[in-house]
Each structure stands twice: as C-alpha cells, then as structure tokens.
Amino acid sequence: MAIVIIDGKEVELAPGERLNGIQAAARVGVDIPHYCWHPGLSVVASCRMCLVETGTRNAETGAITMLPKLVPACQTPATDNTVFVTNSEKVEKSRAMVEEDLLIDHPIDCPICDKAGECNLQDYHFKYGQEQRRADVRPFTSRRREMGETVTLFVDRCVMCTRCVRFTREISGTSELFVINRGSHEEIDVFPGHPLANKMSGNVVDLCPVGALGDKDFLYQQRVWFMKKHAGVCAGCSTGCSIDVEENLDTVYRLKPRANPDVNGWWMCDEGRYGFHHVHSDRRLTNVERRDGESLTLLEWSQVVGEIDERFTKAGRPAALLSPHLTVEEAYLLARYIRSLDAEALIALGPVPVVGEDETFKNGFTIRAEKCPNRRGVEEVVKHFMGRVANLDDLLAAIDTGKVGALWASGGYKHEWIDAATAERLATVDVLVVQDMFASPLLERATYRLPGAAFAERAGSYVNHADRLQSFSWAIRPPAGVRVESGVYWELLQREGLVKPRRVMEEIAAEIPFFAAAAQPVGPLGVDLKAAATAPATV
Amino acid sequence: MPKFEPVLLANIGKPDSYTLKVYEAGGGYGALRKVLAEMTPVALIDFIKSSNLRGRGGAGFPTGLKWSFLPKDHPGPIYMCINADESEPGTFNNRLLMEDDPHQVIEGTILSCFATRATTAYIYLRYEYPTSLERLQSAIDECYAAGYLGKNILGSDFSLDIYLHRGAAAYICGEETGLIESLEGKRAWPRIKPPFPAVEGVFRKPTVVNNIETVSCVTQIVNRGVEWFKSIGVPSDPKNPRDPGSYGPKLYCISGHVNTPGCYEAPLGITCRELIEEYGGGVWKGRKGKAAIPGGISMGLLTEAEFDTPLDFAGPGRVGCLGLGTAAVVVMDETTSMIDFLHNSCRFFAHESCGQCTPCREGTAWSLSMMDRIKAGKGRLKDLELLLEIGDSIGIMPGTTICGLADGAAWPIKNAIRKFRGEFEEYIKRTNPTGYQVTDAVSALPILALH
Questions:
Q1: Best CA proximity match to B207, nearest among B180, B172, B174
Q2: What is the CATH number of domain B20-231?
C-alpha cells in the first residue's frame, strides 16, 4: 500500500493507483493551483503554477529528505513515501510570482469578461497573488480573434496553458489550434482558411482556465454567479453524456460536460452542448386542447386527466406509444396505466430517430447516430410488458386490424418525428391522445393535445447505448401550461401525492430484473445495468 | 604567442583543409580504421569514459557516461544527434570546425555512433551557417563515395547514415530536447524530463545528443590516447570523487574589445587573463578591461578583478558565474556601459525565450521592459530589486522552468547588477533625478520595435 505525505497528512493510495501530486493532494482536500494540467490531456508542466516542494521519506527511519528545488506537482508521481509540501513560504512566493507574471500582459477586464466568477486566474490571484502591481502599467489592449463558428478568442487574456491546443491534437484529433510567435509574443491562432471546426469545439472553452476562449453561444448572455448548476444527462444522442445544466430563473443558458469516466470523460459534443435552444422555443405547445371535428376547445389540466381516463375506459382496447425521449420511470408509469385498463394492451416503442452514422473521435469519444437518450430504457420497459420489443409497425398493424380503440402517443422529439401518412393511420383510433413539445401531423389529428416537457424539465433516469442508467432531477420548471409527463401519468394511475422518480425506480427495479441494479440510489456517475441484466440468466 | 600545439585545430589553415584528400593526408580516418579493427562498442565507451571527456556544448556532462545511459540491447533504432545549432552569443568554435575541418567532425560522429550502436545520425545545423552546410554536405558525400559512410563501413558490419538538418534559426533549438522536437518537425519547446533522451528521444527512440566539438575530441582521443588527453587540463578534485575534472584541449572563442579576436585552442584551465593577453592580444586601444563574459552570454560576467579565474568546468562557478558554458569569452573594455550590456542580454533572452514556461516567458520580457525604461532614463532603484528577484527565481536551478534557457537569462542579470551595482545606481540617479526613488508601478515605455 503506497502512502503519500501531503503537508504532513498521509494519503493511502489503492494498489496500482497512479496519481500525480495534484491528484494526491486533492484527496486530503489540499488544492494545488494549476493552469496547464488537465486530467484528460497530456502533461506539459509549463504554467508552473503547481510548483511544490517534494522529497522522500525513508521507509525505515522515517527521515525526510527534501529536494532543494521546486518541482511541478502535475509532473511528479505520487509514489510510496513521496512527500509534498504545498504551503511553504517558498511555494507561496513562487505562486505569487507566476500570478504576477501572468497578469503583466493581461487586460484585467473582468467586468466585461464572461469568465469572471469561475476564472482560475481571478481566483488564484485573490488566493495566491500579489497585492500590488509591480510591473509597468501597460496600455489596455483587448483583441478579439475568431477561431470558428462556435468559439472566439480574446487574445490578450490568454495565459498560454495550451490546453486548447492539446485538446484539438489529442482528443478531437483535428489540430486546428496552434501557438504562433515566440516568448511573450505568443498567441493562440488558427491557420487562415482552417477555422476551429469540429464537432467537439465547444470543449476548448470549458478547458480554458481564463476568459480567453469564449463560447459565442453563451457570450454575454448571463453572469456565471447568477446561474445554478443541475447535474443532468444530455438527451442529444444515445451516448448520454453527463452534463451540468446551468440555468437562472428557469432559463437554460448553457450545458457543460460533467466529468464521468464511464461515459464521456470530460467532454461533450457541440450537437449536445448547443442543442438545448428548443427548450425555450416559442413554438413550444402550451395549450391543453380537445378537438371535436374541426373545433378546438381549450381545457384545463384539472379537467382533462379525468376526461381522458373516462374516454379511454369507454373506448376500450387501449394502446400506448412510448417515446424514447421518456424517462424509464415515465415509460413505466404510462405502460402501467394502459395495462391497468386492459391487461393485454399493446405497448410499443416509438420511432427511434437515427441521423447519419456514429462519429468517433481520436480519443474514442463517440457521437451516436441515434438521436434520443433512452431507447434502451424504454425498450426494456416495453419488453417487460410485451415479452418483446413491439414498435410502431406492430402498433400500425394492430390499428389497421381494428385492435386499438384508444391510443396514447408520447412525443418529446426535438425534430419532426412522424409523417402525415403514418399519422393518418394512427388517427383512425377512436380516441387519440398526443403529448408533445411541438406541433406535428399527429398532433393535428389528436383528440387531445397535451403540451409535454423538454429534457431539462424532466426528472428520472435514462439508459444509454451501453446500458448505463443515469438518474437526474429537473433543472428548470416547464413553461406555463406544460405538465411533465410523469406527473400526468401519476395522476392517471390515481396514486397518492406527487410523483417521486426515485420511488418509481425502486418499484421498477423490484419488478423488472434488467433494472435491478438501480434498486439502490444511483450515484452521479450512473450504474451499469448490463451485469444485473445478465445475472439472472446465468443463475 | 601561444605555446600550446593545436590538435583540434591542427588542420585549420591548410589549403583545402575541408576536403577528404587533405584530411586523409594528415592521417584522417585512422581513428575509424583503428576502432573498427580493434574495438567493440562497449570497449570504446569505456575508453572514452576513462578519458573523462566532458561535453563541450555547455553543460559539461561526461560524454562516456551519457552514452552508457542508453538501454542495453535495445532492439529498435538508436539515434545520434550532433548539436551544431551553435547560437550562444560569442561562440563560433563549431563553425570553425565545420567549415574548415568537417571530416574531423564526421569521423568523430562515426566513432560516437559506433560506440552507441546508432545507425542513423542527424547533424542539426544552425541556419546561419551556409558555408558549414555546404562543406559538411560535400564532406558527407565524399565519405559515402569513399566507403566511410553507408552500408558496411570499411568492410565491417557497421553501417551508418548521416543526415544534415538545417534549423530555422532559433536559440532554443540548441537545447537538447528542443533540438529533438525541432528535428521531429515540431515547435522547439523543450521536453519535460524524465524521460531523458537516452530513453526516449528523437522519434521516441533512445537518442544521444553530442556537440560538434565533443565528437571532434572523440576522434583525437582515439588517435592520441587517454594518457595524452589527461595530460592536458585540470585534474579532478581528489576531495570530490564525483568531480570528473576538466581534461583535454578546448576551443576558446575570444571576441569583443581585444586586439586579435578569434577561436584558439588552449588547455582547459587557462585563465581568462592569459587568454586575453596571450591569444586575444590584450584589450584593444590600450584600454583596461572592465568585464568579460566567461563562456557565452548566459554564463554571467567576470569583473576585471576576476580575470584570473581559470576557465575550466569548475572555475567560473567559483566566482558566481553559471559555468564554463561554451568557453566563448567576450571582453568589454573600461568604456563599456553595463547598462548597455544588460539591456542587450535581456533583449536577446526575451527574444529567444521559447515561451513555454510562464516564469521565463514573462520574466525575460519583464526584465527587458525594465531595462528599456532604465536605458531611456526612467529607471527606479526598485527596478534593480525586481530584476534581481526575477533573476533569482527563474531557471531550472530554482526549479521554475523546464530547460536551462532561463538560467542563462538570469545569470547576466544577477551578475551584472550584483557585481556592478554602483554603476547601475549611479546611472539611474543621474538619468532620472526626479523619479529614481519611486516604488509604485509606473507606465511602461511605449513598446519599442525591438524584434
């Protein structure tokens, strides 16, 4: 068992664990400031902010021998009996010097900088910097340079940590960014005619420890200290990246990747990152309506749930189309409701949107062609009730042969998901309920039009392409008039109180072996269901 | 005139000294024949180790020891890089060897490759040496034609290819790992160590980087023997078993305010004063010396009183300089302003800092902006403290940078201000009588077009 000593505190490392000084120190709550080091990128040890004193402890005598010079903690492996001192005067002096160096050319335009509030340069300056400027006062310069469609560079704010350059070389593999000039004239740039244009470009903004790289989508939209972070899961594709949804007063301003070694590492793609604007689209449905022939009647949610329940019971032969945008809990509750009306009712998986092909980047990060977050989860729910994965074709066949009297179709798709011809066939049922975010050919033909929720408004669990279940809670409240699906289904089932996704998941885990591993509360990194799903088969 | 019989420079001055014909006439490639016939690579490494030959490029690392760091029985290729990116200000000894005796260099390269089992060697040549480029290339061509290079050299089972690579004129490419990066076609940002080049160098393969003069010494040691080599120079300190001593002849470059500047061969350990008097012809115009750079600008400064310092690997360090460096002595006479000297030095390092590590990138630029201001008559006494603080805090010795460029930038600052403080203070007070005591931040001079 390797023991590392940090500022006198001992840290025990697991066998085979390879950490550097920064990581080992973090174990005992010691923050070693750093710019250039990032756990997802190669080590360059060039910013020199993480300089610490190091030495070794003699295992037998306990005597400690220190190295005379400072070393970068990022480059120094934490091996057995390594000693790190991170709070000596020498270390603090060196940090102050690096901070001072970085601020010589910095415009110090925090009041107009998007990064202010979450900026390492700013934070470290207050923590470790000099109180007064000693370098000569420079004329203010703040040059802006376009890197590409998504990212802009504020040249003078850069501290030359080269994280962004390494990202495009090592992670996206596209190598658009590089360093021009030499010495203190160095700048980040792109070649003329070769802008930063890859589907992971937004990550360089997250990587930037200062305000140099700006996200054009987010630029000047919101001050970071006003926003709240909510751990979520990206609904853009079946990779299901762990994300933070950042919002203020029920408006989402940006999505950021949340580190998850089992899913996305530290990254997310631009498609997911910028793919949240539909949440605040003015095309969102907000009215509950009933169609009688050509006329539309505006209803209240308080009336409509009971009314639909009555109509469904009366029509008989119910069926449900479960969208792969529903959470596992929602899919289960809707299926439960439909089955409570008719034990043989058809439960079908809705259309799974597929666009192009999977795209894999240099480090293995993949954008999936399947543009929905929960095909696997809904599939397993359908399988549980039907014994197989029934889909839209099965539903259409049943409708065409008159086996369906009432249909509940759930949407939640960002883009057009159903054509007029299919909608026409589905609409031949007596009662058609459609809950969706946007108008569609099917919605036009629905008996009841219910406005549905977007991903940031839902709470529950998604199962990604690799059968990893991740639970999340809602980030924003839906717009006025919209009710989140889970609440509607809960009411239809006439259950007590408010819906709690965790309770529902416990019920599902007890009932469906595939979800057994989710019986216990799921951590922020999710849980791999595959092992649990295969275990009963081998018993 | 000098009593020392030149060895490394023996061919210099002969007509057509750079041709194979002339080199062979003087016994050239005898060392190679001898080694191929009589020695194994391991024996050659031990032979060079026993000579205590130290690298001539600046750091003075024992050459044999460096070779022995290569992994034993390495299955893949091992590369030899010859550092001919001679860009330390004041230094031109490699140039002389490459221009006028390229075959000595190539023979040394072949021997070094034989010892290290390298089958490919790259000579990384400074951009500004077009004549060296021409003569080295024609010497390499001659060697291929004569069977000294290529497959099965002189009928042995040893094969070697030498490639001449011309740099693009950057000081940092002379740093061992910066050179490697540049050779690989990348930006010459020195690498973090470990891994050291002996384990992972050019193209991620074990690599040795040696200086031009070092490999030339290898040729001469094989020709004349270890005894001869050790009879010259300063023996190792008996009290320090790890001191490899300073043996052998050394090419000293002397320039600046002397009567006969040039590159001269002398035994290691000659004092700066002897060098100036015997080889440099004394300080010019009948003036007195004021200071001298002991071995390239990055080594710091010797004051006139310190001119008796022996220029061996340990000597300059005893008077507060960084080391022997490239043994390029630049002499300044009594009329020279140390403010000008330091300004020039700061300008050089601010221009040449590769910009990778924050303390060097910003420290060198910061010191230049202060020197600009001081020179323009807006200096403050506080600037001297700041300059010293920068000088003391940048470099691999305090541990704040990856490579030694910052140490080279720091030493002139430290030495100039500490050894000539009175002159600096006097200058600042005289030129800025109203503001020399200011301690608050002041406005930077409009940035001058320096680069």
A1: B180
A2: 3.40.50.11540
In the CATH hierarchy, which top-level class contains the domain B246-333? alpha beta
Whether residue A470 lies inside any domain: the answer is no
Among A432, A419, A511, A521, CA closest to A471: A521
The CATH number that applies at residue A33 is 3.10.20.740
Tell whether A326 and A374 lie within a shared domain: yes
DSSP class of residue A479 equals P
For residue A188, the Cα-to-chain-centroid distance in whole angstroms is 28
Q: How far is CA B75 from the centre of its chain?
A: 32
**DSSP readout, A145-192?**
EE-SSSEEEEGGG-----HHHHHHHHTS----EEEESSGGG-EEEE-T
How close B108 gets to chain A, by Cα (Å)? 34
Same domain as A226, residue A360: no
Query: The whole model's pTM is what?
Result: 0.94
Q: Kindly state whether residues A258 and A325 are assigned to the same domain.
A: no
B338-431 placed in CATH 2.160.10.10: no
pLDDT digit string, tens, across residues A186-239: 999 999 999 999 999 999 999 999 999 999 999 999 999 999 999 999 999 999
- B443 lies within 8 A of chain A by CB: yes
* A79 and A108 both lie in a single domain: no
Q: Domain check: are A121 and A180 in the same one?
A: yes
pLDDT tens-digit readout, A471-482: 999 999 999 999
Cβ–Cβ contact B164 with A under 8 A: no
In this predicted structure, the answer to whether residue A537 has a pLDDT above a threshold of 80 is no
Residue B1 near chain A (CB below 8 Å): no
Answer yes or no: are the C-beta atoms of A232 and A456 closer than 8 Å: yes
Domain that residue A221 falls in: 95-280
Q: Is residue A271 part of a domain?
A: yes
Between the two ends of chain B, the Cα-to-Cα distance in Å is 41
| Residues A429, A297 within the same domain | yes
* Segment holding A72, helix H or strand E: strand A71-72
**Residue A403 CA, distance from chain mean position:** 41
**In chain B, where are the structural domains located?**
20-231, 246-333, 338-431
Number of domains in chain A: 3
Min Cα distance A145 → chain B (Å) is 20
Q: Angle CA(B399)–CA(B403)–CA(B405) in degrees, nearest 5?
A: 105
Count other Cβ atoms within 10 Å, centred on residue B241. 7
Closest residue, chain A, to B359 (C-alpha): A98
Tell me: do A272 and A296 sit in the same domain.
no
Output the pLDDT for position B448. 45
Distance from CA of B165 to the nearest CA of A (A): 22
Q: How far is CA A86 from the centre of its chain?
A: 34
Strand partners, A230: A245
Q: Are B86 and B98 in contact (CB under 8 A)?
A: no
pLDDT category, B442, cuts 50, 70, 90? confident
pLDDT, one tens digit per residue, over A346-379 is 999 999 999 999 999 999 999 999 999 999 999 9
